[in-house]
Every structure is written in structure tokens, then in C-alpha cells.
Specification:
Blueprint: H1 8-18, H2 27-47, H3 54-62, H4 72-84, H5 86-93, H6 106-121, H7 127-141, H8 146-161, H9 163-168
């Protein structure tokens, strides 16, 4: 007896279920993604022994046609702030790590720097938003479980940097 043909409706549904979800990029999310790319590039250059040129990195990123759809002031604030305070931010992050900073993937490292910057320097961003945005960056650009590590480290930092806010559960 010949096998019956599979139900094409089920095949279409299965294919749709496996398709990656479309990301909705708000201007703020896009700004953070470009900031991550710039910080990543800076970290890779530093690890290779070069001195990163923030202005050149920002110029290169701005040449992408989609860059004009990002919230420019947020991008500049995060990117410039992280580059100006990298050593300070790494000193804040290091006690929460379970390994040396140079063993982090550059994506996780960049996401942690951005999250730590927003937690430490931009009190207008609620701590949960700062953590969530950094986790989303790690999910989008990082390895399989890197976002879980970023979440854990930033949660520890939030308890230290935003004590009153985390206790209030805001």
C-alpha cells in the first residue's frame, strides 16, 4: 500500500513555526545595536593591541543606511560613554564575573559594558530596562547562552548600583 502524501497545511505550519521571528527595531533598540557594534569593534581592536579610534568607528557605523533610523543621541551617549569609561566600567563588572574579563566573548563583554554603563551612568533608564536591553543584545549577536551570563552579571551589578530601585522592585 503506498504511503499517503503529507498534509501540506501541517508542513507550512511547521515551516512557519521554525522561521525566526521578525525583530521590531525601535530607534532606541537600533541605537543600542549600533553602540554594541561600535563597542565590539573597539574591544577587538584593543585585544589586538591597537588603540581604537572612536570617531572613526562612529563614522563607519553612520555610513550604514539604516543608521539614520536610530536614536542618534542615545547611540552617542552610550557609545561615547562606554569608550570614555571602559576601564571604570570593567572595574565595576570584574567582581561579578566568574572568569577573567579577557575570557569573555567580545559580544558578551560589549553587552556587559553597555548594561553597566546604563546602570551606573544613566539613572533615567530603569534598571530592568538596562538589563533587558543588554540581554537582548547578547541574544541577538552573542552565542547560544551568552545572554544568560549577561543577565546574571548585570542583575548582581543592579543590586549594587541601584540598591534602592532593586529593593523597591521597580
Amino acid at each position: 500500500m503506498p504511503k499517503s502524501l503529507p498534509n501540506t497545511e501541517n508542513l507550512v505550519a511547521a515551516k512557519d513555526a521554525k522561521a525566526p521571528a521578525k525583530r521590531s527595531l525601535t530607534p532606541r533598540r537600533r541605537a543600542r545595536e549600533y553602540a554594541l557594534q561600535g563597542v565590539y569593534q573597539s574591544l577587538v581592536m584593543r585585544r589586538a593591541g591597537s588603540i581604537p579610534n572612536g570617531a572613526a568607528i562612529a563614522k563607519q557605523l553612520s555610513e550604514d543606511p539604516a543608521f539614520r533610523r536610530c536614536q542618534l543621541d542615545l547611540f552617542k551617549g552610550i557609545f561615547d560613554g562606554v569608550l570614555a569609561r571602559t576601564d571604570e566600567l570593567e572595574a565595576i563588572i570584574t567582581p561579578a564575573l566568574d572568569r577573567p574579563m579577557n575570557e569573555l566573548s567580545p559580544v558578551e563583554h560589549a553587552a556587559l559594558l553597555i548594561g553597566a554603563y546604563e546602570l551606573a551612568a544613566d539613572l533615567s533608564v530603569p534598571y530592568r530596562v538596562a538589563i533587558n536591553e543588554a540581554v537582548e543584545l547578547a541574544k541577538t549577536f552573542g552565542g547560544t547562552d551568552g545572554h544568560k551570563y549577561v543577565n546574571g552579571v548585570l542583575d548582581l551589578l543592579a543590586q549594587k548600583l541601584r540598591t534602592a530601585e532593586t529593593r523597591a522592585g521597580q
